Amino acid sequence: MLRPGIADPEGATIERALPALGFDGVAAVRAGRCFNIELDAADLEAARSHAAALADRLLANPVIEESVIEVREA
Amino acid sequence: MAASVGVIVFPGTNCEHDAVVALERLGADARLVFHSERSLSGLDAVVLPGGFAHGDYLRPGALARFSPIMEALGTFAAEGGPVVGICNGFQVLCEAHLLPGALQKNRGLTFLCESATLRVESTRSVLTRDATVGDELVVPINHFSGSYTCDLETLRRLRDEDRVVLRYVENPNGSLDDIAGISNEAGNVVGLMPHPERASSALLGSDDGVVLLRSLLSAAALV
């Protein structure tokens, strides 16, 4: 996800389009990306730290983006 | 002796030949360097041309940062070698942390392909050393993600350290502070979204990019 305060033209365009399609009551939209990654890891904590390293190193650009990680067993 | 310039080609780069031709017309000895190479030895300057390195997958420049040549580029830049990233090359330099900040999608979410008027803001970079502050140059832009952004502390440093190299006279894409190009602290690494190689002959509609390419070659001659 883009950090708070970073302009998000994609989210803003979706936000403007929703009322035109009849979806009322939408206060704000931020656009982001989701990656589903399967990992071999000893436990959930190891999987989380592995995913965090991937996010920091490649998947997110920390200059403008932040990441949220959810882990669950397959 | 002619300056020897390497033009780096990633899979998906598409402006490399334009860059080579424009540099050779100015007397340089320019050659393509594929991204899988690991050495830049013998080169006096390096250009990262425009295009879609690695398909621009994930984010423009994000995957190019991990190409084998990038380690040599980091060393070349750290040793003071002149490096210019044009358009996608600018995005690659930001992702590789050789320049601060990031390029976001344009304000308005439109791909922009038009002429832009740029103002030279600093002459302490390898791209502008032969230009004059206040010069206005007409140079094409051709990008979807060209809106420069950085945090306010970085912006303050860029301004205070005279590292904003070029500004748009009329901001086309929402770039912070109208920024079209910036340099690193030493001034030897420059990134810009506009394409000087496409403004290298009156036949192309403008030769205003020549002063920029000439600057690079004169910087290369000092290496």
Q: Would you mind describing this structure in some detail?
A:
The complex is a heterodimer of chains A (74) and B (223). Helices cover 38% and strands 0% of the residues of chain A. The relative contact order of chain A is 0.20. Chain A has 74 residues and is mainly α. Chain A starts with 8 loop residues before the first helix and ends in a 15-residue tail after the last helix. The model of chain A has no long low-confidence stretch (mean pLDDT 93). With 223 residues, chain B is an alpha/beta fold. In chain B, 22% of the residues lie in helices and 26% in strands. Chain B has 5 helices and 11 strands, in the order βαββαβαββββαβββα. A 9-stranded mixed beta sheet of chain B has the order 2-1-3-4-11-10-9-6-7, with helices on both faces. In chain B, strands 5-8 form a two-stranded antiparallel ribbon. In chain B, a hairpin with a 5-residue loop joins strand 10 and strand 11. The radius of gyration of chain B is 15 Å and the shape is globular. The two termini of chain B are 12 Å apart. Classes of the chains: A mainly alpha (74), B alpha/beta (223). Chains A and B meet through helix 1 of A and loops of B.
**Rg from alpha-carbon coordinates of chain B:** 15 Å
Tell the overall outline of chain A. elongated
- Beta percentage of chain A is under 5%
Number of DSSP strand runs of chain B: 11
Figure out the total of helices of chain B: 5
Q: Helical amount among residues of chain B, as a percent range? A: 10-25%
Distance between the termini of chain B: 12 Å
Strand content of chain B: 25-35%
Q: What are the segments of chain A in which pLDDT stays under 50 over at least 5 consecutive residues?
A: none
Task: Give the low-confidence spans of chain B.
Answer: none
Radius of gyration of chain A: 16 Å
What summary fits the major beta sheet of chain A? none
The helicity of chain A comes to 25-40%
The CA-CA distance between the termini of chain A, in Å, is: 24 Å
Q: Can you count the helices of chain A? A: 2
Provide the residue-averaged pLDDT of chain A: 93
Oligomer: heterodimer
Biggest beta sheet attributes of chain B: 9 strands, mixed
Q: What is the N-to-C succession of helices and strands of chain A?
A: HH
Show the largest interface: A-B, 10 and 20 residues
Structural class of chain B: alpha/beta
